[in-house]
Amino acid sequence: MFSLMLSGCGTSTPSINMQKKVAQKTYVIVGASSGFGRGVAEEVGRYGAKVILAARRAEALEEVARVVRSNGGTAITLAMDISKPEDVARLQKLALNELGHVDVWINMAGVGAIGRFWEIPVADQARIVEINLTGFIYSSHAAITLFKSQGFGTLINMGSIESVNPLAYHASYSATKAGVLNLSKTIKQELRLAGYKNIKVVTIEPWAVDTPFWRHAANYSGGTPRMAAMDPPSKVVNAVVRGSVRPRKEIGVGWKAKGAKFSHWLFPGLTERISANISHRYQIRMAPPADTTSGSVFKPMKEGTGVDDGVRERMKREKQQKLKR
Hints:
Blueprint: H1 16-23, E1 26-30, H2 35-45, E2 50-55, H3 58-70, E3 74-79, H4 85-99, E4 104-107, E5 113-114, H5 122-150, E6 153-158, H6 171-194, E7 199-206, H7 213-216, E8 218-219, H8 233-245, E9 250-253, H9 254-266, H10 268-285, H11 311-324
Parallel strand pairs: 1-2, 1-4, 2-3, 4-6, 5-8, 6-7, 7-9
């Protein structure tokens, strides 16, 4: 179980006041069956929050709901696909009926495809846009409509460092994450201009993180999906929960994401060149061979329902084995 680091000094135990603020909130989490979504659900549930869990995998959602309830929280599940507007409408209706109001709506659903742009089927890339960007438009629209009717609320959209600094072999994914950032920023400006001071919009921008994302990604690279110096998911979970209580426009997670963003602001061309070289080294040159797969792009996978997926540990073992040879 994660321990929040909600104070500026990074202590692992949140203040009683902060715990109470989390406990008093109601959350909708889209993409809650694994990774960041599951981590956030379990963490806010630990403080007694009410949560609606949404994702494509019904069985995995029920597993997360059991953990939330055992921690003292309240959990309701809905199997849905963020890329289908009728499913998002069902989620909005469920939230109103079951929660009465929504304090925080979090869009975490996401898929990726790894490989050279021209070697990834167009159908895979179109599907990534449907989920990662079009789906976020549907879900953000539902959240903002709800927030306008109740006069308050916080929308949190999961971006990436790739929202700012695109990465080689992630073309469609990077494109969608740039779109998510601009979607969030534009909504925020329109809310300001319309006088909705109590509706906040947050974009989370992490570095590469060890979650089931890599296992679920479509892969046309020839190598096992991975990235250098991945962060633990607890960093992102902590940032999302902090953002739900103290919203800020953009939240870079960890020194690597913040450093890459600052570097890209100063030297965009050089930063993108270095990033591309790192991606090539870890994904193409050094990654163990892997079969071609469409991953969970079209159909969700049963595998990979945890928060942390153990990629860092596997990479560490591989490195040790190479040194022994």
